[in-house]
Specification:
mainly beta; seven-stranded mixed beta sheet; single chain; 32% strand; five-stranded mixed barrel; 20 strands
């Protein structure tokens, strides 16, 4: 869930980049990026000749350090650009014909990235797909995490009005963890709510959530939105 609550800037000129990986070749409708993910502009296209605004969700390693080259679409010198307004997910080519859409997809805002193929004609990943990107404004979101220890939020680390939010290493959520403790290991980064190397806040909390609500949201038992003001 990522819903505008105040006049916002909606950038409709971007695309989520193509991803070549074993995970993205599985065609069962899996999620590539969630709505509310912090995204960056991709500046290292093939042969550095890209002219189009391609974005990827932020991940461990993204920040202001010197780039050593792009790896699978990610590099170390990328800054936060905005927030994904739509969920990006894979198609259903493993269980249905390529291009098939589920009834629940009709009328939804989800972006379905169609499969890409290698030189042998095998599905190798997902193609580039149009994506709306949000800048500024006030939004409600459930795509957040908190400063935690072993997946448990302490009594002082729930979302509070005025908290600065950073891009989290876990699925590019927003997090109030102001310390870069990301390890690049998904399970560890999820358990501590670590942010990526990018050090600047991307949003602030306008309306927070209690400790119990934040924990339930993280546990994915009941989703409780917080209201944020985007700063990028």
């Amino acid at each position: 869930m990522f819903i505008p609550r105040h006049p916002v800037v909606e950038n409709q000129f971007c695309s989520y980049g193509a991803v070549t990986s074993a995970a993205n070749s599985a065609g069962v409708g899996g999620v590539v990026a969630y709505a509310g993910s912090v995204v960056k502009l991709y500046a290292h296209a093939v042969n550095n000749i890209n002219e189009e605004p391609i974005v990827f969700k932020m991940a461990h390693g993204d920040g202001s350090r010197t780039a050593t080259g792009a790896t699978s679409g990610y590099s170390l010198d990328q800054n936060a650009f905005g927030f994904a307004m739509q969920k990006v997910k894979m198609g259903y080519h493993q269980v249905h014909p390529t291009g098939f859409m589920m009834p629940g997809d009709l009328g939804s805002s989800d972006v379905i990235a169609q499969p890409s193929y290698d030189s042998n004609g095998d599905i190798a990943g997902t193609k580039e797909a149009p994506l709306g990107v949000a800048h500024m404004g006030i939004w409600d979101t459930v795509h957040y995490t908190c400063d935690m220890t072993a997946s448990v939020i302490s009594a002082t680390d729930q979302m509070k009005p005025g908290d600065k939010l950073y891009p989290a290493a876990d699925e590019a959520k927003v997090t109030n963890n102001s310390t870069d403790a990301s390890s690049g290991t998904p399970a560890t980064d999820k358990a501590n709510g670590a942010h990526v190397q990018y050090a600047a806040p991307v949003a602030i909390v306008v309306k927070g959530a209690s400790l119990a609500k934040c924990q339930a949201n993280f546990n994915n038992t009941t989703l409780y939105p917080i209201r944020i003001k985007i700063l990028v």
